[in-house]
């Protein structure tokens, strides 16, 4: 059965950041166990697309 999609809240974001710091950005199966309503894919995508400080989240310039 499919899960209901909902926005990530700031508390979940902070917990995800702490778990990635502690366990690394590869162990999504383990990390997702701390989020009963989130999948491994959802956790990974939230980290990679929104929270990872090494990602460039700035809008593209006209040169790009």
Automatic annotation (TrEMBL):
Subcellular location: Nucleus
Family annotation (Pfam families): Myb_DNA-binding (PF00249)
Cellular component GO terms, alphabetical: nucleus
GO annotation, biological process: green leaf volatile biosynthetic process; regulation of DNA-templated transcription
InterPro entries linked: Homeodomain-like_sf, Myb-like_DNA-bd, Myb_dom, SANT/Myb
Myb-like domain location: 5-51
Stretch forming the signal peptide: none
Keywords: DNA-binding, Nucleus, Repeat, Transcription, Transcription regulation
Domain HTH myb-type: from-to ranges: 1-55
Molecular function (Gene Ontology), one example: DNA-binding transcription factor activity, RNA polymerase II-specific
Superkingdom to which the source organism belongs: Eukaryota
Keyword Cell membrane: no
PANTHER family: SNRNA-ACTIVATING PROTEIN COMPLEX SUBUNIT 4 (PTHR46621)
The protein's name in its UniProt record: Uncharacterized protein
Species this chain originates from: Solanum lycopersicum
